[in-house]
């Protein structure tokens, strides 16, 4: 027996040695995989510490080992570029794989499905394309799958419904199409489901989704949902966050929704929901309710006053009526209150702001009466007061005097009176003060907030002189004080405001001469000083304001000659009528576009015949006898030549009348800018050699215009029996582009039209093309702004071009959508990654002070998986 013991010990040590050897070999193999990964990704700087050395790879910060095997590979935010290689699947023991927020491209490799122990897979915030490969149910232990914010497309595989352990499924912000797989309703352990912002075909929310009894977050915004919200949604008792916004949902809001005791966030905005808001509210944990931009009717539920945790209530742009319940004013957590654009009446709850730190107060465009609540800024957190277009009156609350965080006050078109609180003028963060169309009195202060950008105070009863001291006005962009009782002169200090773009001081009692020296005003585009008592000469310096497009000095007492320097301006509107001006008008304005710009100035004249102005006369000379005989001879010769020319012209006209239709006398010429060319210059350039593009709606020519360089002429041909749709499109383009002023949008200079053809004349931009932006090898001056600053913009422009040229009419965006695309407000057209979770809809659209209130309220993912 004793002889067997050494044999057993020998076998034991031999087996142990073999296992250790195998472990050591496998350990080396795993390190080799990591080093191969690094090389595959071109050795990124973030992984420069991955080197073969005596230090075990298990000590690397991106690697977690269990029993000497790699179980977690955490590579988030590492600026990794490239594809995921199939050999990554050699790390057989991985349970957690994280590639969040890198530059991963290519497709999801099927080899990843060999990681049978994988529990968490995070590939979000990358540039992965293609479909989710079949066979994903092979990852039977998967509890968290994050594929959001990529460029995945195709159908969501039904096999996802066969992952029994899945708790988190994030598929939002991709390009998935098809329908919602009902198999997802079989994931009994699912707690978080996000499928927002995808191109799903229009379909209803699967009714079996309501079987997800453990689901805490359901986010399917902007996903083409139609139909009604299932009544059985009230059975999802664990639901904390429901976001079905920006869809086409119809019908009523189920009453059972407001009975969910765990519900905190409810976003149903931008749908077509109708009917009344359920009046019985027992979901007492609600912190944010947004039902805005629907067709809801009835009254605001009194039960909302029971929601002590409610921080945001958005009901704007509906058809709600009745009064605002007083109990809402006593909510202790209320920060954001927006009910504008409804039919609400009665007074505003007087306690609003008294018991909570109110930040946004928006009640504009209703029929509200009474005063603004006295305690609006009692908590000192108020950022915006938006109450225009109501029937409110009285004096402004004294609490606005000490409201340092205030950004916006918009209370125009009411019946307010009295003085503006001194502290409101100088509120340190105030950017917009819009108080027009009231009965305010008092004088303009010497100093205002240095943050003030926009001051609109027209149609009130302000008086005194306009005095500007110090540099507190330096950032002002718009100053509208029309129709008040201001007196005195226009101060020289006003011309020092270099950011000023709009100055409207018309309909006051200003007098004296204008400052002869313009200190700045390089940004000024609109200047209106009409209907005052200003005198003296028009300053020559006005002719050196490069951005000025509208100038109105009418109904004053200006005298002297019009400065010839004004002729260098490209004005779309000019009015110097009803003054005492004299002399010849600048030759640049001797055309029909400015025919009514000089009325009621008896001393003015023009070289061209005009029904509005007299012709400037030359000094008369006494004719001599010799010159009279010479003139008679010349006249006889001219008559003979005229008879011969008439005969020749008659024959020529008959021959060329049919082919020379382009000189049709019925052409209508409309200017939008000061032009040095005529319609004849345009017609002469419409030749084949000048053609630079053509399409379904017409041709585009590059034409040399006299004194203007090259212009682009878009010719839209039609026939007299054409439908009205073309005419509407033409008029819409004129209406929008004729008044548009933007540095990055070409100007519409004029339009020329008759029954047979329409010409749009644009400013020509040399060598400006999308191809140049995409393929130019010119390096950026500042490497820090080289790529991120323009890739998204190029992407939007490219998408816009693709959709605008679609052969399917319904796929082409309307002018309103184009404007939204260019301003970045239409999430359907955004390409590239999206990293604003639940913040795609500005929660304070009239305030512009907080674009991510929902983001702050949502606290990120409700069921995040961190391994």
From TrEMBL:
One of its GO terms (molecular function) is ATP binding. The chain crosses the membrane at residues 630-653. Pfam families: LRR_1, LRR_14, LRR_8, LRRNT_2, Pkinase. Residues 1-24 form the signal peptide. It is found in: Membrane. The keyword Transmembrane applies. ATP binds at residue 714. The keyword Glycoprotein applies. It is a single-pass type I membrane protein. This is Protein kinase domain-containing protein. It comes from Salix udensis. The lineage of its organism: Eukaryota, Viridiplantae, Streptophyta, Embryophyta, Tracheophyta.
């Amino acid at each position: 027996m004793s002889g067997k013991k050494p044999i057993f010990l020998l076998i034991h040590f031999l087996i142990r040695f073999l296992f250790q050897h195998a472990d050591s070999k496998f350990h080396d193999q795993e390190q080799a995989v990591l080093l191969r990964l690094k090389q595959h990704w071109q050795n990124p700087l973030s992984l420069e510490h991955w080197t073969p050395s005596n230090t075990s790879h298990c000590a690397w910060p991106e690697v977690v080992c269990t029993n000497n095997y790699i179980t977690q590979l955490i590579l988030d935010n590492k600026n990794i570029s490239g594809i995921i290689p199939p050999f990554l699947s050699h790390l057989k023991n991985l349970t957690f794989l994280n590639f969040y927020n890198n530059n991963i491209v290519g497709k999801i490799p099927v080899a990843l499905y060999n990681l049978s122990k994988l529990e968490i897979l995070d590939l979000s915030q990358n540039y992965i394309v293609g479909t989710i490969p079949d066979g994903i149910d092979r990852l039977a232990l998967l509890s968290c799958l994050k594929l959001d914010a990529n460029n995945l497309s195709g159908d969501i595989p039904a096999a996802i419904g066969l992952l029994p352990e899945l708790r988190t499924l994030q598929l939002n912000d991709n390009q998935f199409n098809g329908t919602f797989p009902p198999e997802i309703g079989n994931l009994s352990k699912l707690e978080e489901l996000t499928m927002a912002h995808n191109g799903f075909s229009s379909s209803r929310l699967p009714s079996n989704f309501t079987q997800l009894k453990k689901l805490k977050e359901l986010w399917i915004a902007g996903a083409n949902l139609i139909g009604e919200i299932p009544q059985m949604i009230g059975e999802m008792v664990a639901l904390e966050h429901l976001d079905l916004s920006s869809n086409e949902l119809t019908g009523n809001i189920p009453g059972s929704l407001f009975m969910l005791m765990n519900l905190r966030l409810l976003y149903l905005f931008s749908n077509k929901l109708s009917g009344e808001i359920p009046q019985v509210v027992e979901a007492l944990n609600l912190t944010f309710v947004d039902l805005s931009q629907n067709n809801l009717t009835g009254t605001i539920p009194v039960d909302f006053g029971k929601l002590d945790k409610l921080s945001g209530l958005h009901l704007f742009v509906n058809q709600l009526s009745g009064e605002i319940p007083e109990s809402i004013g006593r909510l202790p957590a209320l920060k954001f209150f927006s009910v504008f654009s409804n039919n609400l009446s009665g007074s505003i709850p007087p306690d609003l702001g008294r018991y909570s730190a109110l930040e946004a107060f928006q009640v504009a465009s209703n029929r509200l009466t009474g005063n603004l609540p006295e305690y609006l800024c009692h908590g000192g957190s108020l950022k915006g007061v938006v109450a225009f277009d109501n029937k409110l009156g009285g004096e402004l609350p004294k609490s606005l005097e000490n409201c340092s965080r205030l950004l916006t006050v918009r209370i125009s078109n009411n019946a307010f009176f009295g003085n503006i609180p001194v502290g409101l003028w100088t509120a340190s963060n105030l950017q917009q003060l819009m108080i027009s169309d009231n009965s305010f009195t008092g004088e303009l202060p010497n100093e205002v907030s240095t943050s003030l950008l926009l001051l609109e105070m027209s149609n009130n009863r302000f008086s005194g002189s306009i005095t500007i001291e110090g540099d507190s006005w330096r950032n002002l962009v718009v100053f509208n004080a029309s129709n008040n009782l201001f007196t005195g002169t226009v101060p020289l200090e006003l011309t020092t405001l270099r950011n000023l773009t709009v100055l409207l001081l018309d309909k006051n009692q200003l007098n004296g001469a204008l400052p002869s020296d313009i200190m700045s005003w390089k940004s000024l585009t609109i200047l209106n000083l009409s209907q005052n008592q200003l005198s003296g000469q028009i300053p020559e310096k006005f002719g050196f304001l490069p951005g000025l497009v509208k100038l109105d000095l009418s109904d004053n007492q200006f005298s002297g000659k019009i400065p010839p320097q004004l002729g260098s301006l490209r004005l779309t509107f000019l009015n110097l009528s009803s003054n005492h001006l004299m002399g010849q008008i600048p030759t640049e304005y001797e055309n029909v576009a400015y025919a009514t710009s000089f009325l009621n100035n008896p001393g003015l004249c023009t070289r061209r015949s005009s029904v509005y102005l007299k012709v400037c006369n030359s000094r008369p000379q006494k004719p001599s006898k010799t010159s009279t005989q010479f003139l008679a001879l010349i006249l006889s010769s001219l008559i003979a030549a005229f008879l011969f020319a008439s005969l020749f012209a008659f024959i020529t006209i008959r021959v060329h009348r049919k082919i020379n239709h382009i000189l049709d006398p019925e052409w209508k010429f409309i200017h939008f800018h000061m032009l040095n060319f005529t319609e004849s210059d345009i017609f002469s350039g419409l030749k084949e050699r000048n053609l630079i593009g053509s399409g379904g709606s017409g041709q585009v020519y590059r034409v040399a215009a006299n004194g203007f360089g090259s212009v682009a002429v878009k010719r839209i041909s039609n026939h007299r029996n054409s439908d009205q749709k073309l005419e509407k499109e033409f008029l819409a383009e004129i209406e929008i582009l004729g008044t548009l002023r933007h540095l990055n949008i070409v100007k519409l200079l004029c339009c020329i039209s008759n029954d047979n053809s329409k010409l749009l004349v644009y400013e020509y931009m040399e060598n400006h093309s999308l191809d140049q932006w995409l393929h130019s090898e010119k390096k950026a001056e500042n490497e820090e702004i080289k790529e991120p600053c323009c890739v998204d913009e190029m992407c939007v422009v490219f998408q816009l071009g693709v959709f605008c040229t679609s052969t399917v009419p319904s796929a082409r965006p309307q002018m309103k959508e184009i404007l939204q695309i260019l301003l970045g407000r239409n999430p359907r057209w955004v390409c590239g990654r999206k990293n604003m979770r639940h913040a795609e809809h500005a929660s304070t659209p009239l305030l512009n002070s907080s674009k991510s209130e929902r983001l702050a309220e949502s606290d990120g993912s409700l069921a995040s998986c961190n391994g």
